[in-house]
Amino acid sequence: MDNYDVKYAWRVTPILGSVALLVMYTEAMLMPSLPKIQSEFNVTPADVSWVLTIYLIVGTISAALFGSLGDIYGKKKILSIIISLYAAAVTFTGYAPTFETLLVARAVQGLGMAMFPLAFSLIREQFPPQLVPTAQGVISAMFGAGIIIALPTGAYIAQNFGWRATYHTATPLAVFLAMVIWIYVREGAYKTPRKIDYLGISLFGTAAASMLLAISKGPDWGWTSPRVITLFLLSVVAWAVFTLRQLTADEPFLPRDILNRNVVASTIAIMIVAYAFQMNSQNLTYLFQMPPPYGYGLTVLQTGLYMLPIAAVQIVVAPLSGRLVWRLGAKAVAVAGVVFAVVGYQLAVSHLYSGVWTLIGYLTIAFTGLALLNVSLINLLTFSVPRHRLGSATGLNTVFRNFGSAIAPSVAGSVLTNYSTYIAFNTPMGPMYFSVPSKDAYVINIDIATAMFLITLVPILLSKEVLGRGGGT
């Protein structure tokens, strides 16, 4: 496709960007509501965690599956189906009569994760090359915008009107976006009709679901419990058989021609970015809410408000990153992102207790790096695979992002638990002691993320430049 419609590109960019805005708005609003959901359905904290776990598992599998189906049947067609199902699931979640039906609705809602690889693929496929990085940056910015809108809005709605009302506000947005995508987004010209590798899909689903379930439930069930060990063993076996299947099948689920060094670099790096983002959220939640001298003693609402400037960085930096990627190259911007992330995190470690705004300022530097990485990595990936394979490649990228998001709470939570101390509170019945994370716990978590960023420099530096002065289109 040599002739591009620039006006169409600018018109469709906010539509596809709204996909990220909608999903992040819906998901971020859910977080403050989990205690209310637990109370209404009279379930345990371990039970209510399934609201998040089932979404993550289904979302991870669907990202790879529907990304691949988009290459076969058309990305717009699959995107339209997915957002229609997502709109229905969001509506049903708000009216779920039992906890079991709520989990079913959340599972269907997990299909929404497949919208991201399809949106990224449509942009690369249909937009003029020079506009692709900026458009990808706009979508990345919408992730931050969704969080900024959802955190205070979700807390307010849940507190005053109930948790179901948060979903009622998302329903009309989802329905409207589904209609707009169907009307205004064009179908891509690149399709690759081929047989569906049902065995490969089954093996991939088994491997991914087992691993994510073991990682998510390890802290609750115990890392050495028979269930967790069995899940890990099942995952290892399934991955091994899946790999063999992909190497020998004539038409494998994940096409072999997408696995070049740029795809490997971007998928590994995006997993670390997702890990760092989730780790930071968990670290800050405890640091802000724990009582002095181990924290800042803030309320839940104050914590959410103080996190808004960090999320706002995405809105400003991500679109600018797209322009830098086009001029300097995806690889160069990715390296710059690692530098910003490492410097920002290490400055934050040195000033954990120098005041909230000082800490926020240094973390803003780190999140500037994360924004640079998000935009540069998706462009490094999409400009490195054939256009008829974009769905499969971006779906794989989303899978690794979800793995990073799933691993972070388990690792960070274990550090916060194992490196803890006790503080005393005076009560009418005498002093009572409570366990809180020590100062070392926050430092260790950030240092782990820093080390991971430094390690990811290796695959990034080994990748091949595809844009800027050192690459092409």
UniProtKB/TrEMBL annotation:
Membrane topology: Multi-pass membrane protein
All residue ranges annotated as the Major facilitator superfamily (MFS) profile domain in the record: 12-467
Primary location group: membrane
GO cellular component: plasma membrane
Assigned keywords, A-Z: Membrane, Transmembrane, Transmembrane helix
Transmembrane segments: 12-28, 48-66, 78-97, 103-123, 135-159, 165-185, 197-216, 228-247, 259-277, 297-320, 332-353, 359-382, 403-422, 442-462
Subcellular location: Membrane
Keyword Cytoplasm: no
GO molecular function: transmembrane transporter activity
SUPFAM superfamilies per the UniProt record, alphabetical: MFS general substrate transporter
InterPro entries, alphabetized: MFS, MFS_dom, MFS_trans_sf
PANTHER family, A to Z: MAJOR FACILITATOR SUPERFAMILY, TRANSPORTER
Name under which the protein is recorded: Major facilitator superfamily MFS_1
